[in-house]
Amino acid sequence: MLRVEGLSKRFGGIVAAYGVNLEVHPGEILGVIGPNGAGKSTLLNLLSGLLRPDAGRIEFLGEEITQAPPEVRTWKGLGRAFQIVQPFPEMSVWENLMVGALYGKPGTGLKQAQRVVEEVIALTGLAPKAQTPAGELTLLEDKRLELARALATRPKLLLLDEVMAGLRPAEALEAVELIRRIRASGVTVVFIEHLMPVVQALADRVVVMDYGQVIALGHYDEVAANPRVREAYLGRAR
Amino acid sequence: MELLLQTLINGVLAAGIYALVASGLALAVGVVGIVNFAHGEFTMLGAFIAYLLFVGSGLDPLVSLGLAALVLFLVGSLTYYGLIRPVLGAPELNQMLLTFGLSVALQNLALLLFGANTRVVSPPYQGSTIHLLGLSFGVVPFASFVLSVVLLGGLYWFLGRTRLGLAVRAVAQNRLAPGLLGIEKERIYLLAFGLSAALAGVAGVMLSVILYASPTVGFAYTLKAFAIIVMAGLGNLGGVVPAAVALALAEALVSTYLPGGGGWVEAVFFLVIFATLTWRSWRAA
Amino acid sequence: MIAAAILLLALLLPSLPLGEWRAFLLDTAQFAFLTSALALAWDLLARSGQLSLAHGAFFGLGAYAAALSAPALGTLPALLAGGLVAALASFLLGLATLRLHGMYFAIATLAFSEVMRTLVLKAQFTGGSIGLPVQPAFSGAFPLGSYYLAVAVLALSAGVSLLLSRGRWHYAMAATRQGEAVARVLGVPVVRVKLLTFGLSAFLGGLVGGVYAMKTLFLSPYDAFGLGRAVEALVVPIFGGLYTTSGPLLGGLIIVGLETWLRLRIGEGYLVIYGLVLILAILFLPRGLVGLFRKGVGRA
């Protein structure tokens, strides 16, 4: 579904991604883990088009999108939710979602967009807050909105950047359920996560990054047993 | 060759005032985080203070220099307390619009009080020139250049060598410097903004002799100062002097060598601002 | 509502029994309409997050282009030409400033308008610093011709402003303003949104300039390209209420009223009102005049 070959990006002297190869299969949930500064968020930014790679190639649904701007990737079905939630603060929850619904797929009319928003709002449990200004939400609601807004663009593949960060365990559990439901509706998911139990519960496969490189790829148990991974997490002080 | 040399010297001499005004703005931007659109109006106030003192009591502009610095320091402090402090937490654009409003208000207030005429402070030595190695330059531009260098030297010394100056730089580097209490930070903001206005005011006194005092004399300097600090890299006080020299030289060259000279100078300056800003924005991406 | 009332009043004003003040009132009203229209155009651009100081330049370009082409084209095509010249200029400016935000954008647009002014000042065919006499609208066939042109431009600006405050465009502009990167990731074609609003806003600004030229019958670079225009264009919406249609409309009438009164009282320096209004509005009226009458969050 998504194929990444030799993707590299450096900022000044810092290598944030180096020769990353990756393939995402349709319908799977792929977890991306790694120590702080391993280049996970950079990878997501490269995939969603907010950064342009120095080298390498990105292919989505058989089309090359390496140089495509972010909005074009979204139109093709590559959705993205941010780690730091950035709702449009002067809009209500409903209006925030309308932006995604209207522009996520070209040619969406107002009526159709409203139906999409109703669906997404029901799925994410934001219905009671529909008319609340986005600037006045709690953290949990913010995170839901972030997810809902990405869903409103009707992605085929959804990139999630630490959507559980800062949530209480019970809330995280809810979010896990939500992501399962999203996958069940036919959306492929790639997510970055710090909480290992969440990764274990959700991910079909896990990618481990360190110093901008992929150091391991496989099922959670395999990866967790990998000595290089253990070293990356435990072996040195950062 | 001689013309070129003369042009270059004129450029360098003009750079003194530019650097003075721009250092003031850089201080406000770097420390308080405010792009002060009314900065040039502080320069204008300085020019009018020199003019009024000269006409009213025959005070030599050299003496007014100190007085203007004092008055503008007060004006700057009051501006900080009355206008800047309430919007420190507001969006950047509100801050910009507020100082823009202050600029428009001060300009037109001056217009109301003094009219649009240009007024020159003309002490007896105003027209004298120094001849050196076949080149000549005016005493006043030369003296103001030397004064600017001395003042800038003083500023750098203050920021680099004194305890208070180091505190100012600490605040500039990190708005929320640990260990600095709110009150101390507040005092430093006040000091920096007052100092910023004082520098602009001193430059204004020099302008009143070299050029003239008029309600609109300052506005161009806001933009010139902005061009300089953008070229230097925002908040980089050390880059201000070379950037000021570069811009002043460019201006001097244009006014000497471009046919129809004078009128194009402003355009060149604005073109430089425009080009620097846009070029930087595209390169950064 | 407010918009409709103001437009109706504007249409009826010439036929009201105004007595000896008629000429003065109509003149003042006409300038107020033009100021409001320019403010509405500025506000349009502001909705996409771009705070322009170049609206004096669009106004001036439109004024000069209309004035120079009117003898050959006739009044209405000349006005259109003025709008198009301004739109073209804005397109080029917009391309260069796409990546500038906040104050950097504002300062770049200010620099642009100063360069434009110098060009007009230095060019031969514009009459340079001497100025340029302008033919009256419709060769003077209708005494109220330029008055009704001003009403028409105001109606057009208000109409466009209302139209773009709802539906797809409203969402695109508001999203671009409130978070450009996020908007792009949600599929909003931000570059297109910015350039199109820029073009539309400048087009309206150019139209306003053209009508102004045909009213004053004389242009000078200092007047037409003055920073004062840009200041008016931004102070009025901020005072009246940003991102609304009634705000700039109401604000324009009130501020021009104040300005006229002040000009009669004190002469030069009356622009001080713009500075003071701007300062007071930022400190005490964050949501503008119309914000006072609306509860809750304003329209995004």
TrEMBL record, chain A:
GO terms for biological process: D-alanine transmembrane transport; L-alanine transport; L-isoleucine import across plasma membrane; L-valine import across plasma membrane. It comes from Meiothermus luteus. Keywords: ATP-binding, Nucleotide-binding, Transport. This is Arginine transport ATP-binding protein ArtM. Residues 2-236 form the ABC transporter domain. GO terms for cellular component: plasma membrane. Pfam families: ABC_tran (PF00005), BCA_ABC_TP_C (PF12399). CDD domains: ABC_Mj1267_LivG_branched. InterPro entries: AAA+_ATPase (IPR003593), ABC_AA/LPS_Transport (IPR051120), ABC_transporter-like_ATP-bd (IPR003439), BCA_ABC_TP_C (IPR032823), P-loop_NTPase (IPR027417). GO terms for molecular function: ATP binding; ATP hydrolysis activity; L-isoleucine transmembrane transporter activity; L-phenylalanine transmembrane transporter activity; L-valine transmembrane transporter activity. It comes from the Bacteria.
TrEMBL record, chain B:
The chain crosses the membrane at residues 12-35, 65-84, 96-115, 135-159, 188-213, 225-250, 262-282. Its main location: membrane. Keywords: Amino-acid transport, Cell membrane, Membrane, Transmembrane, Transmembrane helix, Transport. One of its GO terms (cellular component) is plasma membrane. It is a multi-pass membrane protein. InterPro entries: ABC_transp_permease, BCAA_transport_permease. GO terms for molecular function: transmembrane transporter activity. The keyword Transmembrane helix applies. It is found in: Cell membrane. One of its GO terms (biological process) is amino acid transport. Belongs to the binding-protein-dependent transport system permease family. LivHM subfamily. PANTHER family: AMINO ACID ABC TRANSPORTER PERMEASE PROTEIN (PTHR11795:SF445), BRANCHED-CHAIN AMINO ACID TRANSPORT SYSTEM PERMEASE PROTEIN LIVH (PTHR11795). This is High-affinity branched-chain amino acid transport system permease protein LivH. It comes from Meiothermus luteus. The lineage of its organism: Bacteria, Thermotogati, Deinococcota, Deinococci, Thermales.
Automatic annotation (TrEMBL), chain C:
The keyword Transmembrane applies. InterPro entries: ABC_transp_permease (IPR001851), LivM-like (IPR043428). GO terms for molecular function: branched-chain amino acid transmembrane transporter activity. It is a multi-pass membrane protein. The chain crosses the membrane at residues 29-46, 53-73, 79-98, 105-125, 145-164, 195-214, 234-258, 270-290. Its main location: membrane. It is found in: Cell membrane. Keywords: Cell membrane, Membrane, Transmembrane, Transmembrane helix. GO terms for cellular component: plasma membrane. This is Urea ABC transporter, permease protein UrtC.
